[in-house]
Amino acid sequence: MDQSISQPYEGKNRLFVLFAPSDADERLTRQIDGLMAEEDGLRERDVFLFVVAGQGAVKAIGDGASGARLDPDDMRERFGVARDDFCLVVIDKDGDVQLVEKAPVATFRLFDLIDHLPVRH
To answer: Which of 9, 18, 19, 85 is the most exposed place for a label (fewest CB within 10 A)?
Structure first.
């Protein structure tokens, strides 16, 4: 994959990339449920959510997040995540990785991180 995951979104959106062994992984469902409970906050912070679970295609959640064609194996390799691992990666609007966590993270913590990042115009 030549194109960075963040390239189509740079300057416009932040990305949360969630990795899990399957769609049914308890950590994944807990993380997604927490994020979706704060959907307005995600929208206000220009966040798109990508889910890489199992061997299926990468799923995009969020208005306008579906543009990129991403391969799950390429995504796992790019971020060094094994198929049986859970991982959350936060990418800022400049395309820089700001956080990598191997366990679900409270939404308020993620919002706090984003709210303290420098804003570029």
So the answer is: 85
Measured from the Cβ of residue 88, the count of other Cβ atoms closer than 10 Å reads 22
Judge whether 55 lies within some domain: yes
The pLDDT tens digits for 30-44 are 999 999 999 999 999
**Domain-embedded: residue 64:** yes
CA distance 70 to 83: 16
Q: Is residue 20 part of a domain?
A: yes
0.85 surpassed by pTM: yes
CA pair distance 99, 85, nearest whole angstrom: 16
pLDDT at 51: 93
Calpha distance 59→7 (Å, rounded)? 17
Q: Which domain holds residue 19?
A: 14-111
